[in-house]
Amino acid sequence: MIPVARPWMDEREADAARRVILSGWVTQGPEVASFERGFAEAVGAAHACAVSSCTTALHLALSALGVGPGDEVVTVSHSFIATANAIRYCGAVPVFVDIDASTFNMDPTLVDAAISTRTKALLVVHQLGMPCDLSRLMAIARRRGVPVVEDAACAVGSEIRWDDVWERIGRPHGDVACFSFHPRKLLSTGDGGMLTTSRSDLDARFRLLRQHGMSVPDTVRHTSTQVVFEDYPVVGFNYRMTDIQAAIGREQLKRLSLMVARRRALAARYAEHLGGVAGVTIPHEPTWARSNWQSYAVTLDAGLGAGLRADSVQRAIMQRMLDAGVSTRRGAMNVHREGAYPPGSWRAAGSLVRSEHAQATTVVLPLYHQMTDEDQNRVVEALRSAIDA
Ligand SMILES: *Cc1c(COP(=O)(O)O)cnc(C)c1O
Q1: For 194-253, how does the pLDDT look when each residue is reduced to its tens digit (9 = 90+)?
Q2: What is the pLDDT of residues 86-118, one digit of tens each?
Q3: Which atom from ligand 1 is nearest to the alpha carbon of 126?
Q4: One domain for residues 322 and 204
């Protein structure tokens, strides 16, 4: 069976975890601090704050920007549900705008109309690792005075051309970027997340909120020669990353460039072999973007002219591929169609028809660091014969 994704971990990560386990300090401590410094340097950020997941990172980012009950946050429905859930955690209302059909990212032309007097933030997503059109989105957000959070869950190592220079996602180009280290993403710590920002006030707020709102961290008390009493000025959370996870993350970070290079080579090979296949549209990479190809999603329109339903074709092709030993997944979901999002819990700024169409027609093909050319040939063959069938 060819899996859809697989983390690239070996003895190096196992040794790193072992070293921390035997050190006597296993929760957020020196390894987390070191991972944060390394990550900030890798993406070109002034500050990086590690947390337990990208979901908790998104919650902290919106909380630190003051998003609260009754506020609105403009985002996309075509994303993993955690994007919109973070808005709901704050008691705020997600306002969904449609995507650009070629990049599956927020359509900048729809954003102005979605912003209201209640808009507290714009939450953009670099979907499946493909950078969204940040320069256009930032211009609108700055003009309207709305802060920008980047859901960069999938985008570690992705790049964007900014003032004619290629820069990694996470500098950040908005106010805050949030990353995920879940095993479906490139760089994994089992679970984990990171917030990057240029603003020291926001970074300080993240650090306070991730650890119960505690004024003096336990690491400081542990090494102090004086007795220290902490206090709790605000209601915080326990969103810490452990030192075991951070030690694994430090090993993974050393290989980030290799991970991206391998995935870009595999994506180029998919493009070469699938580019001419009828019924398959390969993903589009704008000239100003370099995806890390966290996911490689093709769009299927085979048989649609014959009056078949898009989602039935999608399911049938995925099933045939599974029968042939190739695991796939649907592309991104549509949050507004889920039971957790009843009418009244969200608002749409215009039609979401392109989001819905993308959900019904995209299929994520296997892509992982250790994938061989033979594995990839099998995927291509399985897709071709599923379409023919
Ligand atoms: C994976 C993902 C998340 C959630 O990340 P976790 O680290 O699993 O919490 C959020 N947004 C997007 C777009 C994702 O793909």
Answers
A1: 999 999 999 999 999 999 999 988 888 888 899 989 999 999 999 999 999 999 999 999
A2: 999 999 999 999 999 999 999 999 999 999 999
A3: 13
A4: no
Assess if residue 194 is contained within a domain.
yes
Structural domains counted in the chain: 2
- Contact 362 CB / ligand 1 (< 6 Å): no
Q: Is residue 307 part of a domain?
A: yes
Q: Which of 103, 151, 186, 187 to mutate to test the pocket of ligand 1 (most atoms within 8 A of CB)?
A: 151
Q: Based on the fold, state whether residues 261 and 349 are members of the same structural domain.
A: yes
Give domain status of residue 2, yes or no.
no
Residues 17 and 30 in one domain: yes
How wide is the angle at C-alpha 148 spanned by C-alphas 103 and 116, nearest 5°?
95
What CATH number is associated with residue 280?
Answer: 3.90.1150.10
Please indicate whether residue 193, judged by its CB atom, sits closer than 6 Å to ligand 1.
Answer: yes
Give yes or no for residue 189 CB within 6 A of ligand 1.
no
Is the domain of 324 the same as that of 239?
no
Structural domain harbouring 196: 11-97+104-254
pLDDT at 293: 98
Q: Pocket of ligand 1, candidates 56, 76, 85, 154: which has the most ligand atoms within 8 Å of its Cβ, to mutate?
A: 154
Rounded to the nearest angstrom, the distance between the alpha carbon of 90 and the centre of ligand 1 is 17
Position 32 scores a pLDDT of 98
Contact of 8 with 254, CB cutoff 8 Å:
no
70 with 145, same domain?
yes
C-alpha 187 to ligand 1 mean position (Å): 13
- How far, in Å, from the CA of 203 to the mean position of ligand 1? 20
Residue 379, helix vs strand vs coil: helix
Is 150's C-beta closer than 6 angstroms to any atom of ligand 1? no
